[in-house]
Write a structure and sequence with these properties.
Transcription Regulator spoIIAA; alpha/beta; 121 residues; 3 helices; five-stranded mixed sheet; globular
Length: 121
């Protein structure tokens, strides 16, 4: 799947990488109200490209995201909720502490699943 060039390249970028054979939507930059249209399209395109016959979840990697606002998280939550209707799980990978706080403050943590980080040995 080719990388999607978003309208605001200085705000957010997206690409699909294959990690252990699974497609992962990788987001970078700032996820805010300026990028919600492009974010919505990238997330929905990725979910639809992955299909509904998945055993493993659809992964969205946000480890390279500098900042995120509630509007962007609502876009991801809505996509996750829609995917769940078809039995597909959407998981966020690499959520920084600030993103986790925002998820809790907005109560979107109930709608967005975070990938569990391995416990260091």
């Amino acid at each position: 799947m080719a990388a999607r060039q978003l309208t605001h390249p200085s705000v957010v970028r997206s690409s699909v990488e294959h990690v252990l054979g699974e497609p992962v939507l990788v987001l970078a930059g700032d996820l805010d109200v300026r990028s919600t249209g492009e974010l919505r399209a990238a997330v929905h395109d990725h979910i639809h490209a992955c299909g509904t016959d998945l055993i493993s979840p659809v992964v969205i990697d946000i480890s390279a995201v500098r900042s995120v606002d509630a509007t962007a998280l609502k876009v991801i939550a809505a996509a996750s909720r829609q995917a769940q209707r078809y039995g597909v799980r959407v998981v966020l990978r690499g959520a920084r502490p600030a993103v986790r706080r925002m998820l809790h403050l907005t109560h979107l943590i109930r709608l967005i699943e975070l990938e569990r980080e391995p416990i260091p040995a």
